[in-house]
Write a structure and sequence with these properties.
Layout lengths: L1 H6 L3 H6 L5 H18 L4 E6 L13 E8 L6 E11 L2 E21 L14 E8 L13 E3 L14 E3 L1 E3 L4 E8 L2 E9 L3 E2 L3 E5 L7 E7 L2 E4 L1
Parallel strand pairs: 9-14
Antiparallel strand pairs: 1-4, 2-3, 3-4, 4-5, 6-7, 8-11, 9-10, 10-12, 12-13, 13-14
């Protein structure tokens, strides 16, 4: 934003424009680092400096800044960036830049009251524009193989914590277990000793076996050996 403003100045004034102070450069480095880290998470994030940082450097030389990490994985709400202070490429200290972050995008809200064990569909939820700090795990799309583990009221933002895997195998069910190695495939009937959904691990017991084996559920009453 600062660079864009400078480009609008007449040449005579541009020549007189003061160089950015160390405090401004430190804040800019922290903001740029936060944007880079947020880009890895997806969605659009916006940041602003929560309070001016402090730069305590007494020795002369060329000052540079090297951000190292954020104080939290999801840069939302109040957080800070840790920055190494360097003079002539030599580290002379650390600084903390406090920022505030918001997320901009769409979240899924319940169109009406939804009962427990409801399998979500497009006619039950609506994409709602959102800017701010969303609830942890807020849904942006309907996940496959999931259902509500609790009832929710109309208008609520749905989160991963509201969902559970739809079980395809219940404890005590008969499960066809398949084991494949190169061109060889072997199948046998087993009994489930745990509940699991598609892609989940399930404990299975074969007839006469002394212990259970763990397999991946591939469909109703079906699993494959890991």
């Amino acid at each position: 934003m600062r660079a864009a403003a400078l480009l609008l100045l007449p040449p005579a004034l541009l020549a007189q424009a003061p160089a950015a102070s160390p405090v401004e450069r430190l804040a800019d480095a922290a903001l740029a680092f936060a944007q880079t880290e947020a880009a890895k998470l997806g969605g659009e994030h916006r940041f602003k400096v929560a309070q001016p940082p402090r730069v305590l450097i007494s020795r002369p030389g060329t000052i540079t800044f090297e951000p190292s990490h954020l104080s939290k994985r999801e840069p939302l709400g109040r957080f800070f960036v840790v920055v190494a202070l360097k003079v002539d490429s030599e580290k002379v200290g650390m600084a903390r830049v406090d920022l505030e972050g918001t997320w901009v995008g769409t979240v899924l809200r319940a169109k009406g009251d939804l009962a427990r064990k409801t399998e979500l569909s497009g006619d039950q939820v609506e994409a709602s524009p959102f800017e701010g700090v969303p609830p942890e795990g807020a849904l942006t799309e309907i996940p496959a193989g999931q259902r509500l583990m609790r009832s929710v009221v109309a208008g609520r933002i749905l989160t991963r914590a509201d969902l559970e895997t739809i079980p395809l195998v219940q404890s005590g069910d008969k499960v066809r277990l398949t084991a494949t190695h190169e061109s060889l495939s072997i199948s046998l009937d087993t009994t489930a000793r745990s509940r699991a959904g598609l892609g989940d691990r399930v404990r299975l017991e074969a007839p006469g076996a002394r212990r259970t084996v763990t397999a991946i559920v591939t469909g109703p009453g079906e699993a494959r050996l890991q």
